[in-house]
Structures are given as structure tokens and as C-alpha cells.
Design a protein that fits this description.
By secondary structure, the chain is mostly beta strands. It is 4% helix and 50% strand. The longest helix is centred in the middle third of the chain and has 5 residues. 29% of the residues are buried.
């Protein structure tokens, strides 16, 4: 069994907020292996590994493009759900970890780039628009 990890790099000028997707309320979100119970704030220039408790066999992972769900948010001036990417992470058609589904809540002041992928890891860099 292996753990799937999303390495998040905050290359923005402000904090990046990381949380579980509320549609995936049964997952336990982990930051660098520690379970979080509230939104995690990643400082500019820092990176973390984001994962969930689930461990996948290679056979399960091969056919699962919906392995975990996260919310990544830039700073906003109110409590509205804006400046946020709602993501699903899993294996893409090539068998590599990737963002397999995404919704954006506009207006956006951040963007993302997938900069590396393996079978169990995807590296995502967030930047200012």
C-alpha cells in the first residue's frame, strides 16, 4: 500500500489556504503527515505535502482518478467562497498523479501549474496571476 501525496509550493505573495473538500467529508487531510482539523495556511515561499489517510494498492490506484479532494485558496477580503480551486486528485490516463477535476471560484488572484508527476506524487506550484 502507498500514500498519494500532493506537494504544494506557495510561490504567491500571500498565504495559500489548504483544506479538505467538503464533498469528501470522510477523508482526513494531512499536512506533512499530521492530520489537520481546520484550514492550513501556507506561507509564501514554503511547501508542504498534502495527503489523506487512505492508502491505495497499485491495482486500486491504476483505475481511480478520484483519490482525494482539496480546496486551495488565495487570500480574499471576505468569507465568500472565492479565489479558490476545488480539486480532485488521482491518476490520469497515463497512470500518473494529477489534478483530474477542478472548479474555480472567481475572481482569481492565483493560478497553478503542475510541475512534476509520478505514480504516487504530484507537485503543484501556486503563483500570483
Amino acid at each position: 500500500m502507498d500514500a498519494s501525496i500532493v506537494v504544494c509550493i506557495n510561490a504567491t505573495s500571500k498565504n495559500l489556504k489548504i483544506d479538505g473538500d467538503p464533498n469528501w467529508d470522510d477523508q482526513e487531510v494531512r499536512i506533512d503527515g499530521d492530520i489537520i482539523k481546520s484550514i492550513y495556511s501556507l506561507q509564501p515561499g514554503e511547501s508542504v505535502g498534502v495527503s489523506v489517510k487512505n492508502e491505495w494498492t497499485e491495482e486500486e490506484a491504476k483505475k481511480n482518478h478520484n483519490m482525494m479532494g482539496f480546496m486551495f485558496s488565495g487570500e480574499n477580503d471576505n468569507d465568500e467562497n472565492q479565489n479558490t480551486f476545488q480539486t480532485t486528485i488521482g491518476r490520469n490516463r497515463e497512470g500518473l498523479m494529477s489534478i483530474t477535476d477542478i472548479d474555480s471560484f472567481k475572481p482569481m488572484t492565483i493560478k497553478y501549474h503542475v510541475i512534476a508527476r509520478t505514480k504516487w506524487l504530484v507537485v503543484v506550484q501556486f503563483e500570483d496571476v
